[in-house]
Design brief:
Length: 572
Amino acid sequence: MTGPDTTTLTPPMRTIDGKYEVVRELSRSGNVTLYEVNAAAGALRRVAWFTVGSQADRQGFHAYRTALRAIAPAGLTDVVARPGAYYAVWQPVAGIPLTDVVTQPQKQEETVEAVQALAAALANHGFALADADVVLDGQVPQVAYLRPAPQGRSLADITALNAPTLAALAGGRVRRKKRERAPGAWLSFVPGLLFLGGAGWLGAQAAQVYLNPPVRTVAAVTGKDARTAAQTLTQAGFRVEYAYGDNANAAVGAVLRQEPAGDTTLPIGRQIVLTVNKPPLMSVPRVEDQTVDQARSLLRDSGLRLGKVVRVDGTLSSTPEGRIVAQVPAQGSSTERGQPVQVMVSTGVQGKETWIADLSGMTFEQARDHARAAGLVITTYTREPSDGPQNLVLRQDPAPFVRVTVGSPVRLVISSARYTPPNTPAGSLPLPPAYVPPLPAVPDEGQGTGDTSSSGAATPATSETTPSGTGTSATPQEIPPLPQTGLGDNSAQTPDALTARQVDFRYDFPADLPEGSYSVVVQDADGERQVLPATEAARLAGQRAQTPVEVRGNAVFIVRQGTAEYARVAAQ
């Protein structure tokens, strides 16, 4: 659904999130595209797809989702928020559009009051009536669709947007609600006069408080813990609603921003939205069998950090000294960004001998597991061209069944393809010029094939005449040499050019890296192998990938997005 130029789903497309078949595009506004889709059993739905390519886009979607939860529109069926998929699903709602009700010459009082209440609820979340498709089912207004509102609207802006609709709704004749009076209710009128004076005074005071509530200054809580910030605001008389954002430079649970901003004066009872830092969960990588420095680097690249390091005896697990025996949380566990990963590091195997089986014919992964079970470590391996299957062990050192000290290094020779296609297109080859033989020598008039001396005796012809009788022959110098192609084919390189060398792979992923999974491979004389495993774009955006890699012959690094090539980096 994504490509090198985008961050989320963009047309042309066929399905959304693997569940909704796209029928057509209805509209596009800002980073929101509205599609008509087929849902289950062929039911037509509308999907509002949010293109989330920045932190501001993500915060805007979460504010939109908060408003949907508070208003509970009748047309809303689902809201999805996860990396690479931010959208809301809407269904049709039967009823009379509000635009038609406004033009009617007579309205019901219940309808006017219900629409006014809906306008107030929308305004509390930064929306106006014009942002919603409102239909009336009887006297009850329902929201069939809600468009995302621009950020930064003030209450005065929303009031101005609602004024034409509310004025037209209240215009004309308004039929009052019928109020039934119980039999004998008139008898309560006389006793009620006794309380009329006091009730009138109390009512006036209540109306004064309702229409003119006290105002207070909103405390600035940005950067504080969300629980502490909410407590401060509620104690001041305000209501608090949470939205969620993601900021790598802020603590988890801290307030990233607040709406309205701090030091704003508001009547008590108003709602304040706090955007809390809640990054998506990270997958814990495997750091077992690595050194502490290697684990620290890998965890940092994964958005985590190295926690407590515990030293344990590696004899039982046959783990060499300095290698990680176990980790907490385990590989593949989900945790929040920036959280620590505790590791247990081997202090070595105590004075023990071991041996290793015959690894020939095993894959590299199988050989590594056998070596670890024996308490040994595969430190180096080289590749050798072979006609057999690839990535199999051809030879090993130490030899099979030789007793060695636990923790000793193991060196392997691994099979690779005999022929590797060129890394770059050859292009057009220069062709040698056509060979043109020299013209035969022409004898003087009156002379034969032999030259006649002044004495009249014929001089014998030279013994170097050509067999074809042309009178000449082509010397080796007249044959043009073959051209040098200079294609960089590994098969034509000198032995020195194929000697293993170490290059430094370095690539800066852009900050606006499109959503998806990215991996890095290297192609050289030994074939193709992985440098960086598949990693989500959220963990790579704005980061630098740098590592030394051993290559032979011509080498090129390829950055892939899924299975498609995203970038190509020449080996330095």
